[in-house]
Structure formats: structure tokens, C-alpha cells
Amino acid sequence: MSTHFITSSELEKFLAVYATYGKERPDDEPPFMQILSWMDSRQGNQVLFERNCQPGEIIVREDEQGDVFYVIRSGHAVVVKGGDLTQAILGFRWKGDAIGEMALIDNKPRSATVVSLTEMSLWCIDRQLFYQFLGENPAFSLNIMNMLSGRIRQSSEERARGFVREKQLGQAIEDLNQQATRDPLTGLFNRRFMDEALRKELRLAQDDLSTVGILIADVDFFKRVNDTYGHKAGDMVLQELGKLLKSNVRSADYVCRYGGEEFVVILPGVPMTALERSAEYIRTSFEMAQFQFEDKIIRATISIGAAMYPQHGASGNEVLEHADHALYHAKRTGRNRVIIYSSELVSQPPQS
Prior knowledge:
Elements: H1 8-21, H2 33-41, E1 49-53, E2 58-60, E3 68-74, E4 77-81, E5 88-93, E6 98-99, H3 101-106, E7 113-116, E8 120-126, H4 127-136, H5 138-181, H6 191-208, E9 212-219, H7 222-229, H8 231-247, E10 254-259, E11 262-268, H9 272-288, E12 291-293, E13 296-298, E14 302-309, H10 316-332, E15 338-340
Parallel strand pairs: 14-15
Antiparallel strand pairs: 1-8, 2-7, 3-6, 3-8, 4-5, 4-7, 9-11, 9-14, 10-11, 12-13
Helix pairs in contact: 7-8
């Protein structure tokens, strides 16, 4: 018998779903536990075929003919509907459950693929051995049609739950991605994402001979806001600034929380005049805004430094440093203003 395995990434996915939902096993005794006990009792008295499987091994494959079925002695498996093993997880099988019995009884191709999740031991039962069992256990024979009918209903229910599980797993993965790239306070991209986005946009700009604008905005006297109104109020001001930035740039632009009260906006393909106009509009919009916190009205301003690739630097880091340098000069020369980087700016280290 040739042995086939799924990929390690597919196995990891199935194990992740099992870790979340594997404890949903029904409390009722598995219907084929009686066959398992019967098979175990015949060891030494009859030639039986035992199959041992490794994690990730395909036990039966959807649409293949079913000349035998298996009863699980140990381990557990996943039932999958779909030729590429990714369409839907229908459920799981444990000790005492059968694998592929309906294909044998109905003499039809298998309706799903079953993959071992752990090391497994299986009794292999062909048609002749199954009929022998039925002959020795007439009560089981009388109830088999009801049992198989229940299995069909259970499979349909598992299929419905399987789609939900797939969606929930996908959402869980998306949540992890969000946590890795988003700032938890504002929901904006974080610095880790910003670094990668800037590298990507610089590569595209180099290929297209285009531009990339950068704005760095910083809340003026932010410590005073925290000291006067409390840190919750300060958090609210940062959240409102994040919303304002998002609502005043294009969908193709990136708005990121750089750290503390600093925010970075990356604007691919923007001309210098539009970069300056956008920065000034953001500054005046924030200056005019009023934020209510409990029974208090809070107002604040921001300073913005701006720089442009390739005019102000040959790399993303250089342009970012020059935008930060321009921000420093906006702070030093009165705050609540926009400064575009130029080589005439007095060379001093950025404000910490």
C-alpha cells in the first residue's frame, strides 16, 4: 500500500483547529466501539490486518473506491471535504469511530478525505469480515440503518460547523496579523508595518521614477494634556488625531503611529505642492477641533515635519530622518506649524 502525506503547513492548520474544537466530541459511546471490542477479542484467533499511521498521513481519499473501512484503536483524525484539503473541515474521529464505512456499505466512492493528526492504530475491515461481524451480532445488524442515517445527519451538521470553524480560524489568523501590524490604542499601522511599507514604496518609486512624501506629526505640549486631564484624556486625543489623519489622506496612503505622540504618514506619488497642502490642512483641522472628555473640552495643536523622496534623501531612512529634522525645527520655532525640510535648516539633532 502506497503512503501519502499532506504538507506540514496543512497539518499545522488542522492541528490548530483541533486544539480549539477537538473537545467537542459527543458524550455518547462511538457506534463502532462494539466492532472495536469484537476485533480486539479476535486477536490470536483470526488473521487481522492492523494499519499504523503517522501524523499527516492520508488514511482515505475523497472519491476513491471503498473496499475496506477502518475502526480507530488509538489516535485521532480529521475529516476534510474538498480535493485540495482546504475547502472545509467536517469534523474529527477518535477511538471507536469508523473511517470509510459508508463507502463500503453503499459500494460508492468515498465522500471525504480523512487524515491522521497523531500516530494512529486502525483495524482494517473488508466486506467479508464486516459480514462475519454482522452474522455474529444480529442486534447491530438490525440497528445499522438507523445508525448510518444518524451518521449522515451528523456529517451534514459537521459540515455546517466546519465552515464556521474555517471562518473562525481565518478570523483568528487575521486577528494575529492585526496584532502584529496595528497599534492597539489607535488602530493605525504600527512602526513595524511602517518600516516595511516605506521600503516597499521606495522600491516602487525607484522603479517608476516617482516620489514618496513623508509627514511626521507630533502633538504639541502633550505632557501638559496628560498632566492636566489625565492619561485617559491623552489617549483620547491620540485616538482622535489618528482618526483625523485617516480621514484626510487618500486610501493609498499609510497612516502609522510612530511612537508616543508621534504619527507618520507615507504618501506615495504625491507632488511637493500637494504634500505641503495636505500637511497644512491636517494641522489647521486639528487646531480647530474640540474634544470632549467627561465634562471638559480639550483643544490641542500639532507640529508637522515633511520631506520627500528623492528630493530630500536617497533612502527611506534618510527621508524619514529629514522629516524628523523638519519637525524639530517646527517645534523649536514656535510649534503649531508645518516645516518642509531643506538643506538650509540649521543642522541639529532631532528632539527626543
